[in-house]
Amino acid sequence: MTREQVLDLYFMDARCKLIELAAFLDRVDRSDGEGDFRLQSLRMALPLLSSSEAGRAKAVLEALSDPTLEPIPSANGKGACGAWPGIVSH
Question: What value does the CA radius of gyration of the chain take, rounded to a whole number of Å?
Answer without folding.
Answer: 16
